[in-house]
Amino acid sequence: MKSLALHLAVIALLFALQFVLPPYHHTNIARVMVLAVFAMGYNIAFGYTGLLSLGHALFFGAGLYAAGLMANGGWTGLATLPAGLLAGGLVALAVGMLALRTAGVSFMIVTLMFAQAGYLTILYFGPVTGGDEGFVLPAAARNLAGFDLATETPRYTLGLALFAVALLANLALVRSPLGRVMVAMRENEERSRMLGYNPFTVKLTALVISGLYAGVAGAGYALMFGYVGASFAAIQYSILPMLWVLLGGAGTVLGPFIGALLMFYLIDLSSSVTTAHQMVVGVALLALVLFAPKGLLGTLRERGLKWLP
Amino acid sequence: MLVLSGVDGGYGHVQVLRGLSLEARAGEVTCVMGRNGAGKTTLLRAIMGQVRATAGSITLDGQAVHDLPAHEVPRAGIGYVPQGRRLFGPMTVAENIEVGLMTRGKGAATREHVLALFPRLRERLGQVSSTLSGGEQQMLAIARALCLEPKVLLLDEPTEGLQPSMIALIRETVTALKATGVATILVEQRVDAVLSVADRVAFVVGGTVAETLPAEELTADAPQFRQYVGV
């Protein structure tokens, strides 16, 4: 009950923030919310199931391009958003069927190879995908049930809606039997097998759910910001969700959001005072590894807030 | 109930089990004894499908289990408590039990039955399992295996490293399980523990059962213990 109240409070706070934030931060928070959905998906695979993937940019890119290409074909948000969700899930299913035959470092490398193959495919089919430059979505396609997503409030509202649904679904998932089995699998795969669980099925299910999150985040990002580009499918977008999750706390429901928010503003603020902002980020991550290796919420949970899911 | 017949098996090119035959009967405790490296744990792992039987057969109520994928063996009705307990450390006692219950869709009645066997666990349902004492962790490991309502329970040195009061409790539990019709295979090195619960004792030497005797024919100073176990 306490944890549900906390998560609802975070959603309520984000809802209220839109009325007081200046336009610049209004857009930033909308961006952070949709990226947090991506990070939550990564957390389901990595934080809860122990799947260290370097291929999530492919799932994000699948959602992004599914929505973007459909938008180019004249479809609106009501069709492109679910299409992005589905694309992320289907690509995760296909990758998982093959990559989950491996484990550990091999899994990391295989997922990275899939993501790079996806990235190069986008570049190769430049006439369709826009190649390196990408493409801008037509204004008419950035419409969701009559709301123009190019304007501030509908954009923020879509980001918040995606975030809220993803967060509460994540909370329900980790409290469900499947969530418990995912954690069991992360903790000891062999022991889980000895209790009758098929590791392949459990991990594939987690990866597909993770892909659905990444896909819908990609589609949401395309619609909210009106741009689709190959850089979103590059390796950087496989590493970023991992950093957000590690910073916020792997295996915590709110950790990915906290991590994405802090990292976003750390880069934003440090880049306004120095060109060496990557170094600032590096130092912050180093401090994290040294003083809070379980991430911010992971450390808080360890040090007293044991009820944090 | 569970019958192993001429089972070979091992790790890679290293053969550990050599034509091993053993039977576990309903409501009985079959103790397996032998020196280190004799193949006791490998025997349990072979039953669970973690070590492939390269020859021979393992059947449960006449159905072959040696060719099942490892995760299907528990569903067939075989519970396993490995050496060293291996709990899901960050999970609470209640969550560990829940994970055990879900495999075969068992519910509140099974949970109550298991907690009745281990009242101490009921008092610690919300406690993170890695913070339990060694004895309590062993209870939880056994409880979680019992959540499957197994026909056969495999216990690998459950009293190892426990204080006497906990050993007595584990012994009582194993004895209580006999009444429920569960066939237990207990790998154990302590002669007193074996003699207090066993119906039959199988001595394993070099990956095969050298001799099986009814427990009532054995005393603490029986020559078999010195010959096969070295105690």
Q: Regions of chain B with pLDDT < 50 over 5+ consecutive residues?
A: none
CATH architecture of the largest domain in chain B: 3-Layer(aba) Sandwich
Helix content of chain B: 25-40%
What's the story with the biggest beta sheet of chain A? Answer: 2 strands, antiparallel
So what's the overall shape of chain A? globular
Q: Please indicate the percent range of residues of chain A in DSSP E strands (runs of 2 or more).
A: under 5%
Tell how many strands the DSSP assignment of chain A holds.
4
Provide the structure class of chain A: mainly alpha
- Encode the helix/strand succession of chain A as letters: HHHHHHEEEHHHHEHHHH
Mean residue pLDDT of chain B:
89
Organism (chain B): Fertoeibacter niger
InterPro entries (chain B): AAA+_ATPase, ABC_transporter-like_ATP-bd, ABC_transporter-like_CS, BCAA_Transport_ATP-bd_LivF, P-loop_NTPase
GO biological process, one term (chain B): L-amino acid transport
Keywords (chain B): Amino-acid transport, ATP-binding, Nucleotide-binding, Transport
